Amino acid sequence: MSLTDYADFARAYGGIAKASSQWLHLAGGPQVVLTVAAEEGAQVPEAPNFTMH
User: Fold this and answer.
1) Degrees, nearest 5: CA angle 31-48-8
2) Gap between the Cα atoms of 24 and 9, Å rounded
3) Per residue, what are the HEC states of the chain?
4) pTM (predicted TM-score)
């Protein structure tokens, strides 16, 4: 998956207006970090922890 795919996946959830993704390089290996913003400045609803392989 590309970084764009991760951001698109996040934007597919209701209430998410913007999403961006980037690599975070950690000792255990690279991880993808998503940053999201809700519509109209609302608080982003709490969601389960998604893990994609």
Assistant:
1) 55
2) 18
3) CCHHHHHHHHHCCCCEEEEEEEEEEECCEEEEEEEEEEHHHCCCCCCCCCCCC
4) 0.72
Burial class of residue 20 (count of CB atoms within 10 Å of its CB; 0-12, 13-18, 19+): middle
Is 52 or 24 the better-scoring residue by pLDDT?
24
Determine contact, residues 43/17, Cβ cutoff 8 Å: no
Instruction: Tell me the pLDDT of the chain averaged across its residues.
Output: 86
On whether the CB atoms of residues 18 and 34 are closer than 8 A, the answer is no
Single-letter amino acid, residue 24: L
Q: Phi and psi at residue 11, in whole multiples of 5°? A: -65, -20
Kindly list the domain boundaries of the chain, sorted by start residue.
3-41
